[in-house]
Amino acid sequence: MNGLAAQFGEAAAVLLGDLALVWSDQMLNTSGISTPSLLAAHVIHDEMRIELMAGQYLDIRESGETTYSADRSLRIARYKSGKYTIERPLHIGAVIGNPSSNSSILDALSRYGLPLGEAFQLRDDLLGIFGDPTVTGKPAGDDLREGKRTVLIAMSLEALSESGRKELLAHLGQPEISPSKIEELRALIISSGAVEKVENLIESLTNQSLTAIEDSSIHLSSREFLTHIALSAVKRSA
To answer: Which cofactors (predicted)?
Structure first.
């Protein structure tokens, strides 16, 4: 059994994921919402899952790429974070509240949700390398050990000198990186200017999100709540 433990764990995880998909349908179908709301929510729920699978495919495919790309990583963030975590849940909530929600409301929620989801993921990227383990609950520099192909890493590699790129690439994805080497790699990433670029991108995306909601016809109290959610999502330490 010991030799097959990893295979068993992966197979069990896939089955558990399949089971969770069934449960999500059951929860929606037995939620007690009106039939018009249920039908409208199901359409969005199905689209959300399709988009998530597409994002996961892009993520898997990215692991086989020989180059790093900030644009590709941001596209993955849009599908896996922007759509799944923020945009589509907002759409589902809107049609549950009002199954005849007009396209202008849904469009406003998309213009709010997509850039916010990307900004949320970018904050995660920063915390994955520079976060405080006592706050994040994850080991310091965990994204470096896992070799995650984030926007932050892609921007760092684009800006570093040849020797800097070689140094970073030599240690990405190495589970046994020492704490001292993590500190060296952090300093290298900061020196590339990538941290500042990512922070500026987070600010730009957040402003896009807030502008979209301010310019919409969504009720004032809802706009205020969504503004609070946006700021909480990007100004966090965990």
So the answer is: Mg(2+)
pLDDT (average), residues 69-80: 96
Homologous superfamily of the 35-234 domain (CATH): Farnesyl Diphosphate Synthase (1.10.600.10)
Count of CB atoms within 10 A of residue 122's CB?
A: 24
- Phi and psi based region of residue 101 (left: phi greater than 0; alpha: psi -120 to 50; beta: remaining): beta
Cβ-based neighbours of 71, under 8 Å, separated by 6 or more: none
Cα separation, 228 vs 96, in Å, equals 22
Measured distance CA(226)–CA(229) in Å, rounded: 5
What number is the average pLDDT over the span 7-13?
94
* Residue pair 72/62 in contact by the 8 Å Cβ criterion: yes
Residue 230 above 90 pLDDT? yes
